[in-house]
């Protein structure tokens, strides 16, 4: 296997370090970083070889149970990259950064978001969870601050008082969510990655990310479900 045999250069190491310190990196930034690392270390650079470059890094990360993963933003469909620790669950991954009560609030917020119809939870509903926390009680003012930190650390995204899972959270916790929310978590029928904000076919129940819906139906004469061919009743974004 050529990729497995490929040498991990200083360019690869530099790229990996920046990705790890960023938490998550948008696709265009990753491409610029790829070029910068190659040129700085005077190794061969090809603009269309980012995936191969990352595959080489991943082959060396494999024994460490780590991987650079690519995911799409549910807002606009743009690619993002994050380093994922495959040996850890969501709880242990976040445990070093947050207290037990903060983690409990995060898990309950995640429940609200994933079990909702549109992939969002209002700040009111989240703050009402403070009365149900088992670890210890938390004041609503404290909870507001904790939510702010979750947004800053890119585990949650917030828009007009509505919270959803950040792209970083979806990339890092995809397996955790799929196995812990088996009845409700679904993959997008188009890009096959986890879909939190999605539209669902009323006939057969498949889901699609909003950017995937937009892209898929742009090429169709009339909106029909890609699986069961029934009329797609949701409004095309």
Enumerate the spans where pLDDT stays under 50 for 5 or more consecutive residues. Answer: none
Described by its quaternary structure, the protein is single chain
> In angstroms, what is the radius of gyration?
20 Å
The number of helical segments is: 10
CATH class of the largest domain: Mainly Alpha
What is the 3D form? globular
CATH superfamily of the largest domain: Winged helix-like DNA-binding domain superfamily/Winged helix DNA-binding domain
Helical fraction equals: 40-55%
EC number: 2.3.2.27
Catalytic activity: S-ubiquitinyl-[E2 ubiquitin-conjugating enzyme]-L-cysteine + [acceptor protein]-L-lysine = [E2 ubiquitin-conjugating enzyme]-L-cysteine + N(6)-ubiquitinyl-[acceptor protein]-L-lysine
Main location: nucleus
Pfam families: SMC_Nse1, zf-RING-like
What attributes characterize this protein structure?
single chain; 237 residues; alpha+beta; Arc Repressor Mutant, subunit A; Herpes Virus-1; 3 domains; three-stranded antiparallel beta sheet; 10 helices; 10 strands; 45% helix; ubiquitin protein ligase activity; Znf_RING/FYVE/PHD
Give a quick precis of the structure.
The chain is an alpha+beta fold.
How are the elements arranged and paired?
Blueprint: H1 2-5, H2 10-22, E1 25-26, H3 27-40, H4 50-61, E2 66-72, E3 79-85, H5 90-95, H6 100-115, E4 121-122, H7 123-127, H8 140-152, E5 156-159, E6 162-165, H9 167-180, E7 186-187, E8 194-195, E9 198-200, E10 207-209, H10 210-218
Antiparallel strand pairs: 1-3, 2-3, 4-6, 5-6, 7-8, 9-10
Helix pairs in contact: 2-3
